[in-house]
Every structure is written in C-alpha cells, then in structure tokens.
Specification:
Length: about 70
Amino acid sequence: MLQHFKFKPMFENRQLPGWIVSFFYKNERITGEYHPDGSIVWVSKEPQDAEQVKTMIHELMLFHVYD
C-alpha cells in the first residue's frame, strides 16, 4: 500500500501535462515523474514490485487528476 501519496504539476504552466509524485512504499520514500501517457520515470530508486506500484499510482491519478 502506498502511504502519504502526493502529486504536483511538473510545470508552472498547468496546461502542460506531467506530475511529480511522491509516496512511501515499504518504509522507503519513492519519487517519480508521471507522464500523460501513463509512463513513470523513477527519480528515486525503483520500488520493489514496480508493476504493482505503477497500477496503484495509475488508480490514484485517475481518481485525483482525471476525474
């Protein structure tokens, strides 16, 4: 489970898509860049179970950003 999930626009011009995401997963702080095509570029070390984490991030972004 992701804890303390946060996201913010990557660019000051909010018309340009892209977000910085950060969260804790298995007691590690993880950060990454979430792109409009759903790809994620990890800024920190890639988390364990990366595919499962990506799925959780996609669900959260759909709920918070695209809804």
